[in-house]
Amino acid sequence: MTCLFAPHALLPTGWAQGVLLQWNASGHFTQVHTGATCPPGAARAAGPVVPALPNLHSHAFQRAFAGLTEYRAGGVDVVADSFWSWRDLMYRFAGRITPEALEAIATWAYIEMLEAGYTHVCEFQYVHHQPDGTPYVDDAAMCHAILRAARSAGIGLTLLPVLYQSSGFGAQPPTQGQGRFIRSTDSMLLLLEQLNKEIPRLGGDLTLNQGPATRLGLAPHSLRAVPPDALREAVAGMHAIDPRAPIHIHIAEQTKEVDDCLAWSGQRPVDWLLDHAPVDARWCLVHATHMSDAEYQRAAATGAVAGLCPSTEANLGDGVFDLPRWRQHGGAWGIGSDSHVCINAAEEVMLLEYTQRLTRRARNVGATDAQPDTATALWLQAVAGGAQASGVAIGGLAAGQRADFLVLDAQHIALQGLPAEQALAAHVFASGRGSALAQTWVAGTCVVLEGRYSGRGHARQRFAQARTGLLRDV
């Protein structure tokens, strides 16, 4: 099939009726006609069609211990139990994972994403070496596991190998739990060069039976984990390999991180980054939760995307990003599921809106003058920002973009009988933990039908076995 007729579809400009979507053998839209009638023999969407969301921040291996850290350790009080105590538990888990387990966990997580409305994932991959910190014989073994998982699931992938060198600002030595993450800058650049040769470049041919092509980028983990010289050299090296490659970095996620950066440099993290790195539209500032007024304005002006992960930020007690202030300065943003305590695109959008309501004590914060419907406004912005952060043409239902889209389940009780725009709002705010998706399409291929991914049973079994093995003695 290379076309689909949608009685109602959400285009980058808003809702339209009578939309004929056409794509080519490489899985990219060639034409999007509005005011059309369904051609003879063409398939007809059984519900409203909306663009799929890119997932701009993922640590796939963390899906296997989601929900297993929801207790207060002995001797840790409610104030001390935070991101930092959670991180200690995460390190224990990361210390045991193997390439085989990572592939099984990531495959299942990616299938869950497809069933939940994501069709592309930016994988922030920082477990590089064997448990004792020595490299695998195949130095790219863990990245290869992610590549196999994405290919097996049929999800689009932006692979972001992570540069990690120190445990704190001022190039503090790494801790024992960080040994598997550590790479020299030269080692990272060699890895990127190897992967760049192995991965088809953006714009390369894509066939329907092979799935979407993979994009390569770089992720300096954070300012505390990457000293200034290494940050400069790694970004320059990535630019030499591919000047358009995405660059993602954790920043200003925690108030302790801000305080430590001030003590080290006299500047807040985002201010320091903007003064010392060539931040532009290629960059994704993951979390960026704790910024000053000036940082919001300066960062938005670079064109960088803010990578927001509402369910993880809530789970870890990070704080709340000020979305209206960011948008006031024209800032782009997208959604990530990060630690995967929740894999549900609609629920992330809902949580983003609800945290804004709680902090501002107001409703419909995500709506705009141009688009007063909150779900529609937030969905379109998340698609655009996520596509930019991915470095891939997945920016919605338009010619030249990859044919990634969702068909909402018009018969779902939360949506039944509603107009298209209200159906999307019901999908975001009223469909519950089970989303109201009927189909997920990636590069012109339907990979989820009637809300379920074909062959999910085997992948789920492999995930459960991998998790059971990893949890022994942890």
TrEMBL record:
SUPFAM superfamilies registered for this protein in UniProt: Composite domain of metallo-dependent hydrolases (SSF51338), Metallo-dependent hydrolases (SSF51556)
Keyword Zinc assigned: yes
InterPro entries per UniProt: Amidohydro-rel, HutF, Metal-dep_hydrolase_composite, Metal_Hydrolase, Metallo-dep_hydrolases
Keywords: Hydrolase, Metal-binding, Zinc
Molecular function in Gene Ontology: deaminase activity; formimidoylglutamate deiminase activity; metal ion binding
PANTHER family, sorted: AMIDOHYDROLASE-RELATED DOMAIN-CONTAINING PROTEIN (PTHR11271:SF48), GUANINE DEAMINASE (PTHR11271)
Protein name as it appears in the record: Formimidoylglutamate deiminase
Species in which this protein is naturally found: Ottowia testudinis
Lineage of producing organism: Bacteria, Pseudomonadati, Pseudomonadota, Betaproteobacteria, Burkholderiales
